[in-house]
Amino acid sequence: MALSRRDFLKVSTGAGVGTALGGLAALGVSLTPALARAQELRIKDAATIPSICPYCSVGCATLIHVKDGELINIEGDPRSPHNEGTLCPKGAAIYQLHRNPNRPTKVMHRKPGAREWEVVDLDWAMDRVAQLVKETRDETFIERLPDGTLVNMTPAIFLLGGATLDNEFNHVAQKFGRGLGIVAIENQARI
Ligand code: SF4
User: Fold this and answer.
1) What is the CA(169)–ligand 1 centre distance, in A?
2) What are the residue ranges of helices labelled H in the chain?
């Protein structure tokens, strides 16, 4: 289906309170009756909020359905010119960021050599991480290169960020990491 930028903006403006089904119909997308019916039942009477997938720089458009204050569904926005209602497998699982009974909700720790994970106190875990970072940095810190160049860095710690973290957190994490002398930093904060 060819969708111009003008069409997208026109439908986006008019479908703010509509459902994904409404958006599809407005664009003339043909769904089979069975599929349309199933979709309608699933999100019937739900509020629809346009949003964006947080996982990568493609920035696929999504529709979030909320009913009685509860998130009930997230799917691709068919009005978007670049993802046209689709999401990759990772994006299709965004709902599980919010609801997933298998997601750990406590701090888990596996001692060196142990086979089992155990629940630990958050304060203990944070102290443990701080202690290991300090020890590692002290043992590996390089102040100057052999030619005398001042570098103040450690090559032994890697800082990895994620796209689901917000700009403010990533800003602080960058300052924190570079302040420690970490140079191996990867952070998917491009959106
Ligand atoms: S749905 Fe997939 S491709 Fe699209 S923004 Fe999310 S992770 Fe990236």
Assistant:
1) 21
2) 5-14, 20-26, 33-42, 89-92, 95-98, 122-140, 167-180
Q: Is 94 in the pocket of ligand 1 (CB under 6 A)?
A: no
Phi, psi dihedral angles at 64 (to 5 degrees): -105, 125
**Tens of pLDDT, residues 104-151:** 899 999 999 999 999 999 999 999 999 999 999 999 999 999 999 999
Would you say the pTM of this structure is higher than 0.70?
Answer: no
Does the beta carbon of 132 sit less than 6 angstroms from any atom of ligand 1?
no
Structural domains present in the chain = 5-98 (2.20.25.90), 108-186 (no CATH)
Dig out the tokens for 172 from the structure: 């602080």
Kindly state if the Cβ of 8 falls inside 6 Å of ligand 1.
Answer: no
Indicate which residue's Cα is closest to atom 1 of ligand 1: 91
pLDDT digits over 26-54, tens only?
566 665 666 667 667 778 889 999 999 98
Ligand 1 centroid to 166 CA: how many Å?
Answer: 17
